């Protein structure tokens, strides 16, 4: 199963992730 | 030659089942390949932003996998995994599963493995309080898993993997409500505000102030809507068949029923069967209701939602309301001005894909403070969504069955799309009991979707308010 998030955000939004990174509920995805 | 022809004894041998299955799958894979090549494949009813039919593309291995009856396999898998297991076997079986798939049993809410009746129940286990901390950033992970891909959306195309993209329109089912938009445009500001207040329910349902078309600046993919006549015909035929079968079985039981013997009509009290059949019919007719009543989505009255706008609800979602700007200004004027098109100035569209492995906790939570205004249930295939398939099968997330939850957050549009797979075909949304996924007959409706509105959950916020970290639903086995 997979979850796809699609969202509008200010252009200075930055993901705080790496490809193939393991992640858990509530952990930061990104911020402005 | 004549002697050999007439005199040779013929001896028949059965073809091994496995060999037969391989040949059948091979033939079906070849047929699928030809159908896709000719534009008559599984994505026939799905069109991209250019009006082109979505195609399944990849190496021969994905055609072989696609030739399998994955939806039926998924339901059989779900049935098998919901069988009650003997109590003595549960700890051993679940520990073996946890060892193979790397589950962390220490964070389970109920650590006693004998309490989980089946593998399906264990798979949908809850975490104990405080097992996950919610970060205070504006966007957090909705689930445990692996980040497959993330980035910006450019030109209405989402990157599945490097070099393979799929259509955003097809993923979200971008449709329009032109009659609603017209009712607002062209009026004075005062009239517009009045109209918007009067039409709040309607506006929220049809998204006058915030449709995806306005967001993305175009009106496409109308054909992604199910053909209402076709849906109604198929569903009503199926419902009639099931009900007829039920009454036949009732009549067979009737001789021993004294009420029937005396000519008294059978009770009209609704049964579980009727409820199930009606729910099934309702679910299938959502699309037809949408299309025949000016595409107005069906309201969910009994969807397990909280009482709208009670002080408790508003208090609970005060942070959501605050971020949406509700309270500072009349809610109808937030967050967009009438007639706004496209993204807000200075904004971009982003995406992030998270893959949940079989051993992961399979409930999902709200990734931010937002309001879910509607859901679109896309019926489709149930291909595996593992990284192996995601790297090979193009349009994977568009072809698979999924539930798109669409709404808004403080920065504008927000959408969350749980996508089903072969082993986890059922998607559950806690506040939407009307939703039925991975049901029979859906293969005929693949590529279509039905829509429902959550506007009844909170008239003030215009949808279902969700705080960051709130549990929203989950994936079930099969």
Question: Which runs of chain B of at least 5 residues are low in confidence (pLDDT < 50)?
Answer: 175-226, 246-306, 326-340
Q: Could you say which structural class the secondary elements and strand pairing of chain A correspond to?
A: mainly beta
Q: Sheet bearing the most strands of chain A, described? A: 2 strands, antiparallel
Unreliable spans of chain A are none
- Please, what is the oligomeric state? heterodimer
Could you tell me the radius of gyration of chain A in angstroms? 11 Å
Q: Any idea what the shape of chain A is?
A: globular
Distance between the termini of chain A: 28 Å
User: What percent of residues of chain A are in strands?
Assistant: over 45%
Q: SSE order of chain A, as H and E? A: EEEE
Would you count the extended β strands of chain B for me?
14
The number of helical segments of chain B is 18
Q: Which pair of chains has the greatest number of interface residues, and how are they split between the two chains?
A: A-B, 30 and 64 residues
User: Helical region count of chain A?
Assistant: 0
Q: Into which percentage range does the β-strand content of chain B fall?
A: 15-25%
Walk across the major sheet of chain A and give the strand order: 2-4
Any idea what the shape of chain B is? globular
- What average pLDDT do the residues of chain B reach? 70
Describe this structure in words.
The complex is a heterodimer of chains A (32) and B (478). Chain A is 0% helix and 53% strand. The model of chain A has no long low-confidence stretch (mean pLDDT 90). The relative contact order of chain A is 0.39. The termini of chain A are far apart. Chain A has no helices and four strands. In chain B, strands 5, 8, 9, 10, 12 and 13 form a six-stranded mixed sheet that branches. The model of chain B is unreliable at 175-226, 246-306 and 326-340 (pLDDT under 50). Chain B is built from 18 helices and 14 strands. At the A-B interface, strand 1, strand 3 and strand 4 of A face strand 1, strand 2, helix 7, strand 6 and strand 10 of B.
